[in-house]
Design a protein that fits this description.
Elements lengths: L2 E2 L8 E5 L4 H16 L4 H21 L18 E7 L4 E8 L20 H8 L2 E7 L2 E9 L4 H4 L8 H5 L3
Parallel strand pairs: 1-5
Antiparallel strand pairs: 2-3, 3-4, 4-6, 5-6
Helix pairs in contact: 1-2, 2-3
């Protein structure tokens, strides 16, 4: 797991999302369309949409809405959550969600097998190259970055010094 504490993320797509489950589907749909138009591979889009969904779900479950004074960067004052994503010139896709903060800092959990939740940040860690938390006055942003050019198959690596031949040989 790579946990980076601070990173500035310029955004190319940003939206205000209501603080609650109703806006998650709208944000996923908009992200999927934006990334598809940008030519991002479907497998990467699927990962990014799952990351966005997990971040938004965590924000409305564990964070407060943004204060009306902070609003969103487009001038809105709805006190919701801010979602943003960007593909930079190096092919790095960054997804971020900003809320009004909560009683605890976002950290991966170790849920029991039967637990109904607690896996979101572990999923994000598995799908992304980096992720982290950025604090600002009255708001907390959790971000994740992945390659907009990679597919799942390029992220899965064999154990060092192990080849396919070793899998095929009888023990």
């Amino acid at each position: 797991m790579a946990l980076v504490v601070a990173q500035e993320v310029p955004t190319s797509s940003i939206m205000a999302v209501p603080h609650g489950p109703t806006g998650v589907g709208q944000a996923r749909h908009r992200m999927r369309e934006d990334l598809r138009i940008s030519g991002v591979p479907d497998s990467v889009i699927d990962d990014a949409v799952l990351i966005l969904s997990e971040l938004l779900s965590n924000a409305y479950r564990h964070g407060r809405p943004l204060s009306p004074e902070n609003g969103d960067r487009n001038g809105g004052k709805d006190g919701g959550i801010r979602a943003a994503w960007r593909v930079d010139q190096h092919g790095r896709l960054t997804v971020e969600v900003t809320d009004g903060g909560g009683p605890t800092r976002p950290l991966p959990a170790t849920p029991s097998v039967t637990a109904r939740g607690g896996r979101g940040l572990n999923i994000i860690s598995a799908l992304s190259q980096d992720w982290g938390v950025r604090d600002a006055s009255g708001e907390v942003t959790v971000w994740a970055a992945l390659s907009a050019r990679d597919s799942f198959a390029t992220r899965v690596a064999l154990v060092p010094d192990m080849t396919y031949r070793e899998f095929d040989e009888p023990a």
